[in-house]
Amino acid sequence: xxxxxxxxxxxxxxxxxxxxxxxxPAVRTLLDPNVxxxxxxxxxIQLCSLxxxxxxxxxGWIRRAGESCLRVGLDEIGRQLITHAxxxxxxxxxxxxxxxxxxxxxxxxxTPKLDAEQLLNQPPSRAMQEYREIHEETIAxxxxxxxxxIEYEIENLSVxxxxxxxxxxxxxLGKDIMKSLSFIxxxxxxxxxxxxxxxxxxxRLLGQVPAHADTIGKTGARALDIYLRFYGDCLERAxxxxxxxxx
Length: 247
Description:
Strand content: under 5%
CATH class: Mainly Alpha
Order of helices and strands: HHHHHHHHHHHH
Number of strands: 0
CATH architecture: Up-down Bundle
Structural class: mainly alpha
Helix content: over 70%
Number of domains: 1
Distance between the termini: 60 Å
CATH superfamily: Heme oxygenase-like
Largest sheet: none
CATH topology: Heme Oxygenase, Chain A
Number of helices: 12
């Protein structure tokens, strides 16, 4: 198995958007040493409440992509995706509980008073809709193995960005905030292993279908771009929460 395939055939497609992961406007705002604690707390509430829409279908997407891989002859990739899907089932429930915990804490100290159920039922942003669309399009496409690239990029977020966010939250909001960030904290631990698994699957996939390398790379880049825009949406809604508080 040629481990250089990811570097040679995949990374050029995602390099630009991965730079945004390091220095994009949303990332810069969240990791700013002088970030407003209220903005950071409001962002976390939006991230968890809106994140349910992004996370609830994940196990189904991965399983169905695996089944589609089996249909096109990518048997090993398909079986691995189907197995991996079982590890993602029910994770959105952590986000639901995190939302409720964050809102309860906010309501003890801040105004306006928030309603967790109302937050959990907010309409999705365009980026959130696109996130569902890219999964459905990939599953139905001639290269359902593109799901591996989606998983690789999104779970890499938990490895590259989430630890920095956690440290910022502890510094700005206090260590007790971690009681309300179970989803983020667990995925920092889980996704180190998942990212290594995804890289192995991606290497194998590129070796099997080199003609589809562009499609696979562009799928990963698009997925990460969508997710970073989702972070921006969470920040925008957090700022609206602050405006309501000021009013």
